[in-house]
Amino acid sequence: MSAANMPKTYSIARFAAPALLIIHLGIRLASATPNPFADLFLFNLIGLSAAATAYLAPLFNDRFARFAIAAAIALWTLGSTFSSWDSFNSFQIWSPTIDICYSLFYPTALFGMIRVLTTKRRVTPVELLDIAIITLGLSSVIASIALKPALIQFDGSAFSVFLSIIYPAGDVMLLAMCGAIVFMNRRASRNAIFMLGVTAFAITDFYFLWISATSGYVFGSISDDGWMLGLVLMSQSLWLRGNESKSIERLNSVATTLALILSSTILAFAALRPGYFPKFALIPAFATVTFSFIRMAIALHDARSSFTERELARTDELTGLPNRRRFLAELATLTQRSGSLLLLDLNGFKAINDNHGHAVGDQLLQTIATRFTRAAGESTMVARLGGDEFGLITYGSEREATEIAQALHAALSYPVSLSSVIVDVGVSIGHALWDGDATHLISKEDLLRRADSAMYEAKRSGKGTVQWAVTS
Questions:
Q1: Is residue 329 part of a domain?
Q2: Measured between alpha carbons, how far is 373 from 388 in angstroms, rounded to an integer?
Q3: Residues 363, 418: contact at Cβ < 8 Å?
Q4: Is 472 helix (H, G, I), strand (E, B) or coil?
Q5: What is the pTM of this model?
């Protein structure tokens, strides 16, 4: 659904936050004195309207992106509302509640930002762990490094100072990730607007930190609207189509690796210099390393699962041999080298299958697959091509290929003992020899046709093996 086709009420809601921001700026310019209406109600209503704007954005957005940006703005606005309440009322909100709301803004905003500015995809555990590692690792490391100098400038406990600087550290992380994504996915107004929003929000945070360390922050300053301007721009960007042409798995990998290295460095330094970092500052570093190991375990499990799925797609389920797909892929390699293609068709298998049942037929095929594999040797590919037909590719000499063909024929020269019956089955082998002459091209289809013709000649004539040399 495009923005033009959105319900009229949605379009009106889109402009509510910018309108409220303009009204608030007008009130702030007219009167510098903080008051509950302007700084508790109206100011935070801008944030809630921005959250609604993101949530109601057009449906061409990734739904997780809309929800995440809306949730991030709502969380920050909730923290702002509690903080504003404390400025006007004697009944105080429990301060950790405010810090939790502000802190949760960063991972939620990072998750939403990645999905807003890059290729849409399903949510995975690895993606969520990446967000946790990047947010915890980079922001806490920056805050830990800046803690000692900040304690000289700020009043209060080390913990309160740490919390004061972790927010700008989170802004640095958001700015860096956003800038990298925008650089990778350029030529989109959405990206530019979102980047402006993150920049406005971060600059306001930096200014707040600087003014708090120098002349002292005054509640209800006009600079506070910079936060709301940033949130409004982020929400408005979701109403514009983006250039979501590239995913950022490599960027995520670099950022998570950097976060792990920095967190590990902090922990190592803390072990060498006990007491240099407060214990609470090391908790995010421990969490980052823990999440990194969990992510590694999940990634390895996914890689193994993916490998297993690929192998299953290329493996015959009954015999465990390579299937026709894998065999044809290897046959394409044979056309570039010298070697032999052998096609094998069982003699008398249909009668055994009809008389004794499919269970016996399946057991027979499994036993034959084992015999063929042992007779051919480890350097030769033996595949089941379907039914009672097998294929073999070897890169040895003509003499070696002939010996393998004779060994395969001999493998069925004696009865096969199954669980309920003993049966006799033979094999007809068509052998296509290719000398690999670079001046003469041959296709895998041509090789298959020659080997197939040789196999049927062996079956008609009663010979065990018929060779057809394909040379220039």
A1: yes
A2: 15
A3: yes
A4: coil
A5: 0.66
Same domain, 216 and 348: no
Rounded Cα gap, residues 400 and 405, in angstroms: 9
Q: How many structural domains compose the chain? A: 2
The DSSP code sequence of 232-243 is HHHHHHTTS---
Q: Which domain holds residue 396?
A: 324-470
Which residues does 402 contact at the CB level (< 8 Å), separation at least 6?
A: 431, 465, 467
Distance from C-alpha of 180 to C-alpha of 379, rounded to nearest angstrom = 48
Reference 170, options 83, 117, 99, 233; nearest CA is 99
Residue 319 lies in a domain: no
Residues 119 and 166 grouped into a single domain: yes
pLDDT digit string, tens, across residues 83-124: 999 999 989 999 889 999 999 999 999 999 988 887 666 777
Identify the bridge partners of residue 342 per DSSP, sorted by sequence position.
392, 431
Please tell me the distance from the alpha carbon of residue 288 to that of residue 297, in angstroms, as a whole number. Answer: 14
Instruction: Note whether 270 and 352 are same-domain residues.
Output: no
| CA pair distance 463, 467, nearest whole angstrom | 11
**Are residues 289 and 344 part of one domain?**
no
Whether residue 318 lies inside any domain: the answer is no
Which pLDDT tens digit goes with each residue over 338-381?
Answer: 888 999 999 989 999 888 888 999 999 999 999 999 998 877 89
Within this chain, do residues 226 and 118 fall inside the same structural domain, yes or no? yes
